[in-house]
UniProtKB/TrEMBL annotation:
Forms a heterotetramer with UvrB during the search for lesions. Residues 280-591, 609-939 form the ABC transporter domain. This is UvrABC system protein A. The gene is uvrA. It is found in: Cytoplasm. One of its GO terms (cellular component) is excinuclease repair complex. It comes from Candidatus Geothrix skivensis.
Amino acid sequence: MEHIHIKGAREHNLKNLDLSLPRNKLVVITGLSGSGKSSLAFDTLYAEGQRRYVESLSAYARQFLDQMEKPDVDSIEGLSPAISIEQKTTSKNPRSTVATVTEIYDYLRLLYARTGKPTCVACGNAIASQTIQEMADQILAKPEGTKLQLLAPVVRGRKGEYKKLLQDLMKRGYIRARVNGQMLDLTEGIPDLDKQKKHTLEVVIDRLKVSPAIQTRLADSLEIACNLAEGTALVDLDGKEQFFSSKLACNNTKCGKFGMGLPELEPRSFSFNSPYGACPTCDGLGFKRQFAEELIIPNPALSINEGAIQASGWRSVSEDGWRSQLLEQLAKKMKFSLDVPWKKLPADVRRLLLHGTEKEMRFTYESKRNRYDFVHHFEGIIGNLDRRYRETSSEEIQAELEQSMRIIPCEDCGGRRLKAEILAVFVGGRHIADVVAQSVRDARRWFGELALEGKDAVIAEKILKEIRERLGFLDDVGLGYLTLDRSAATLSGGEGQRIRLATQIGSKLQGVLYVLDEPSIGLHQRDNLQLIKTLQEMRDLGNTVLVVEHDLETILAADHVIDMGPGAGEHGGRVVAQGTPADIRRALGSITGDFLSGRDSIPVPRKRRKAERGYLSILGAEENNLKKVDADFPLGIFTCVTGVSGSGKSTLVNEILYKALANMLHQGVHIVGRHKAIKGLEAIDKVIDIDQAPIGRTPRSNPATYTGLFTPLRELFAMLPESKARGYAPGRYSFNVKGGRCEKCEGDGVLKIEMHFLPDVYVTCEQCKGKRYNRETLEIHYKGRSVSDVLNMTVEEALELFAPIPVLANKLQTLMDVGLGYIRLGQSATTLSGGEAQRVKLAKELSKRATGRTLYILDEPTTGLHLKDIQKLLEVVNRLVETGNTLIVIEHNLDVIKTADWIIDLGPEGGGEGGRIIAVGTPEEVAKKKASVTGKYLAPYLKQP
């Protein structure tokens, strides 16, 4: 079958679609935000492909898998097994890294276990194990007639008397022994050894002369020695000693670790998730948490009585609380004031408060009824927090205490996660932690040049092939700047998606339907062509690659394009145009076609705002890969921070600028990235980071509650005559509290039924019929609509209904302005995409009264947006700047970058090769800078009308 045939697709806003998609082609689905792209790609095609696969498994296997509901579609023919590569963070597990997620680390462990060269931790000498035959051959290679004495080193540098050991050896026929370097005849008496001193005991096993005739006897004697001395033997050849070991052990007789063996190297020995390889101090995490003064006392200008201490349990010290009385009595005893700013307290007082006292002190605690006297040492604020952190079993309390903790590298392994003896095993001159500390690009280069010899080359051939291929795939999808030991939890959604993409390419599956969600997100234009080439390679393996995408280059590279629309929400769900990119370009009803053909475009501003109000300056920024950067952000204008992926944009803006300002202006407790100073703060009174994090973690959160729209809405219903007559207050119209909500479903509108090996079923509550409220509450109407009806309306419909009420109309209008007219007021926050959540936050800020001194920070706000939506977004963000506010946007989209007033471009590459400011100035000035990669790609966009 050459096509996938879909009939009657009605999932979400899809309008009973009948559609055919070519198989084994690169198919792009595009269209406005909310037009039904994801409903078609993920909720229909992927969901049905995955459901069919899971249902083919046994009932036993199915209970361990997440199962998808059957999508609302009549039929789908020609569907292959489906794999979804979505934009979600790869893993929150601190043990997951780029190397482990991509399976590169599994191959590295195998490589080091089979070809690694162990060395002694103490002296650095190479160590190796030998068979009895290899030992014998080495001795027999000496000149014939050479005298040798074979000894078994039964004790090396250990305290004890060892009388019983020597008596047992003598009974077994071993009558000569070298004790602390002196040869003794044990038949003449067992020596008295001081048990408090370290001793070395070596038993004489045999004395021989080198000749071919002694081969069998020598092998037997070596075996006896190894059995007695835990796999080790010592040969004295005319005064020169040679050490042999049947296990990995140091053979340098002058080394403190001489003779100390290593277990046989296995792949698990190199795993930081296994006790065989993990550093015992940090259990393979590479770090530990430690309470930090700067997080416990984020604002040292405050006194203790003013709330300087911000750690859990110490924040609001009430006057009659024991901690308050404790601090007052400490102040009297140590003669300091609780009203003096923390930073002005003597150093010894601050140290005492944080770390406690060694000597015991008398304290008195008076409650309302009793008085208690006790003598005890003061454990200190950090001591108290440390003890509570160790003793608690509550995850909530642990999470709260961790806000006052800084993550520091483990002092034993230095953050490398592995035991010292494992880090002393080398391949090509590098230990395994050194290899994964490299960026993907550097590792690819190193493995490309790595040449092993002899049997190692044969053993490693297939392993190296797999490692080189995987590194190549990662580099090709634009992730060359990531280090292999980078924690998976720190990756962005786009990075996580491209890692999964590279992993899938490495699996070389055929006959699969791949469904991808905007793989170009977070990718610089320079890396886009390589990504497109990767998608085409997946197709060429014999797969159907279905991509939801807005990037014009990707659309133009597709074999087949489906343009959804014509509008969003209820106005979408139809196929406006489909065919080759050339067909879409010619389609007059297609908004995408308008942008492809140049009939529509985002214009270059005729005039750019000038930096006339000074600068907000970061000095000496050196967090992550930043190279002591000094950055000046102009106040009162629109600045774009650009650069290739991994060049340091998010570190500079989010980790340093935002966190520092949030701590200073809003008493935040963020751990700020390393920098010397920030200047120009007096011009800012508020900082707002509008990111793509969810607007709520529960299904009860929705756009109406988040934007503050629900409060005046409930007040409106409470003011209605019928509502007043019944005595209903605004709380009656909340579905989160008892009173007006349906108690059967507790205001959810649905009931969850667990089905064990089948997917959980959500059924509409039969009592409220899914309306969330009880019958009495639903009897109150505004213009014929109940509160449930209003929550089920789209923003666009609600604006029409509430146009005469400014307090509601203003908030609804801002949601319309950011292009969210299609979402429903009561839509669960968990169903909103990252881009939608970000625009809800933006709408909330727009509806507030502007101070003209606010700094807004947006990180890639174009995620999930069609060019038409970007047009609207730019109008909105420019409104923020027009009222005097400062806007900083991290962005790769050149249509946004060209409209900025000012650009700060970082680079020149990602990772270790980035972290520098390459160009600053207006878009026109940056486009002329030869060193700027962004400038090179920006120049053609500035020539557009």
